[in-house]
Amino acid sequence: QVQLVESGGGLVQAGGSLRLSCAASGRSISGYAMAWFRQGPGKERELVASIGSGSSTWHAGSVKGRFTISRDNAKNTIYLQMNSLKPEDTAVYFCNARARDVYWGQGTQVTVSS
User: Fold this and answer.
1) pLDDT tens for residues 3-15?
2) Percent of the chain beyond pLDDT 90?
3) d(CA 46, CA 10)
4) What would the pLDDT profile of 46-72 be if each residue is shown by its tens digit?
5) Is 17:82 a contact under the CB 8 Å cutoff?
6) Do 6 and 21 touch, CB atoms closer than 8 A?
């Protein structure tokens, strides 16, 4: 079992930055593909960014150049650096771990005011 706990969300003005963290426990995530999803008000959950076990990354077009996913296997943690935030980035952000099983965190709220 893998437990995931997100942190770092909050209220920020448009143009600001936040850094989300997802701390894993129960098992090493070094062999897991990890990802950040988000779900905005009235919207479906969408994939924002992913990072493979070999640290290859992918970012959605809507966040490319503004958000950066990274991982620190020694700390069993992944991050999402979010810069130049926009009101449309407002959402609950979820951490996801995927190997043979899939695990989710409880989410952290990010609110961007205009």
Assistant:
1) 999 999 999 999 9
2) 96
3) 19
4) 999 999 998 899 999 999 999 999 999
5) yes
6) yes
Amino acid type, 68 = T
- Find residue 11's DSSP bridge partners: 111
Q: What is the rounded average pLDDT for all residues in the chain?
A: 97
**Residue pair 50/56 in contact by the 8 Å Cβ criterion:** no
Under a CB-based contact definition with an 8 Å cutoff, are residues 85 and 98 in contact?
A: no
Q: Quote the strand ranges of the chain, DSSP E.
A: 3-7, 10-13, 18-25, 33-39, 46-51, 57-59, 67-72, 77-82, 91-98, 102-104, 108-113
Answer yes or no: are the C-beta atoms of 82 and 18 closer than 8 Å. yes
